[in-house]
Specification:
- The protein is of the alpha/beta class.
- Helices cover 40% and strands 16% of the residues.
- It contains seven helices and six strands.
- Strands 3-2-4-1-5-6 form a six-stranded mixed sheet.
- α3 links the parallel β2 and β3.
Length: 193
């Protein structure tokens, strides 16, 4: 198994620390530059046969830049999209912590146990992410790239460490925009920027 998990390039909402969730927010100019730089960095080392991506435009556009520069086919996988954070979507982290202090604390201590109004069940969203990435890794016995979201990558890395969705302490191990983690037989290597 060789999979590379890539976080999409930066958006204005990343800078504002605003919860994007499944809202379709575009890359900003810095985000586009991050992905171009990453693609150029990976030109001589990556041998992906395919790139799979979340359908959300910030990930999909990042994947398309990578695919074009690296000459790799891009395929959209709906299950790779970010979690739906319900009423938190569009709010800044400060607004969330002020208006939903109990839930915000639970998210950081026991992520899968949090109940966010109008959100998908967070533990179900986490399970969707894990099953999707595991399925892609098992189905493709070749190096693949997966362009997705910070929370999605954080969930999968916690899972590889044997942490259950309910015990995941979220927002602690987010990788920066436009960077990646590479998993070769579940051994981790980080890169980018």
């Amino acid at each position: 198994m060789s999979i590379t998990l890539i976080r999409h390039g930066q958006t204005d909402w990343n800078i504002e620390k605003r919860m994007q969730g499944q809202l379709d927010i575009n890359l900003n100019a810095q985000g586009v530059q991050q992905i171009h730089s990453l693609a150029n960095q990976l030109k001589t080392t990556q041998q992906w046969k395919r790139i799979f991506t979340s359908p959300l435009c910030r990930a999909r556009y990042s994947a398309q830049i990578l695919g074009d520069i690296l000459n790799v086919q891009v395929e959209v996988v709906d299950a790779l999209k970010e979690l739906n954070f319900g009423v938190w979507q569009g709010m800044t982290y400060d607004q969330i912590s002020s208006q939903f202090p109990k839930e915000w604390l639970t998210w950081h201590q026991n992520g899968g146990a949090v109940q966010i109004p109008l959100a998908e069940k967070i533990s179900s969203g986490m399970e969707r992410v894990i099953v999707s990435i595991d399925s892609l890794a098992e189905k493709h016995n070749e190096p693949i790239g997966i362009v997705t979201h910070g929370t999605v990558i954080e969930i999968y890395l916690n899972y590889l460490q044997g942490i259950s969705p309910e015990a995941m302490k979220m927002e602690r191990n987010l990788i920066p925009n436009g960077t990646y983690v590479q998993l070769d037989n579940r051994n981790l290597k980080e890169g980018g920027q």
